[in-house]
Amino acid sequence: MILIINGPNLNMLGKRPKDIYGTETYEDLKDQINHFAQNNSIDVEFFQSNSEGQIIDRIQKLDFEALIINPGAYTHYSYAIRDALEIVNVPKVEVHLTNIMARESFRQTSVTSSSCDGVISGLGFYGYILALEYLKEKLKG
């Protein structure tokens, strides 16, 4: 099973600034991921929280084979989430809907990415699909 964790404010997609995040909702994101996963025989589970502690608790359950995480704003300062990710010995991909390197300077730093296999940033919902493709191949091999 591949766990997909989404951090703060991802549940508000469709209501966030449309020029940055578009008009699609969090449910649209989950639908697109589920469609791809079903067509590729991938078992996914979603977890979304606006709470740092809940995200850490979910990571620490260690009941998944691989992980996709969009830590949201926690990307830039949560050493606690970074440390939790470091403990988990499974393939992990950090995903961001927007290109964090093209945004405000405070968003251009990721303290969580060093605990992941890679980062996909700026490709919108498609970033999650690419992460699933990578993890599917990684788990096969």
From TrEMBL:
The active site is at residues 21, 96. The record marks 16 as: Transition state stabilizer. Keywords: Amino-acid biosynthesis, Aromatic amino acid biosynthesis, Lyase. One of its GO terms (molecular function) is 3-dehydroquinate dehydratase activity. InterPro entries: DHquinase_II, DHquinase_II_sf. Its EC number is 4.2.1.10. GO terms for biological process: amino acid biosynthetic process; aromatic amino acid family biosynthetic process; chorismate biosynthetic process; quinate catabolic process. Pathway: Metabolic intermediate biosynthesis; chorismate biosynthesis; chorismate from D-erythrose 4-phosphate and phosphoenolpyruvate: step 3/7. It catalyses: 3-dehydroquinate = 3-dehydroshikimate + H2O. SUPFAM superfamilies: Type II 3-dehydroquinate dehydratase. Substrate binds at residues 70, 76, 83, 97-98, 107. Belongs to the type-II 3-dehydroquinase family. Homododecamer. PANTHER family: CATABOLIC 3-DEHYDROQUINASE. NCBIfam families: aroQ, PRK05395.1-2, PRK05395.1-4. This is 3-dehydroquinate dehydratase.
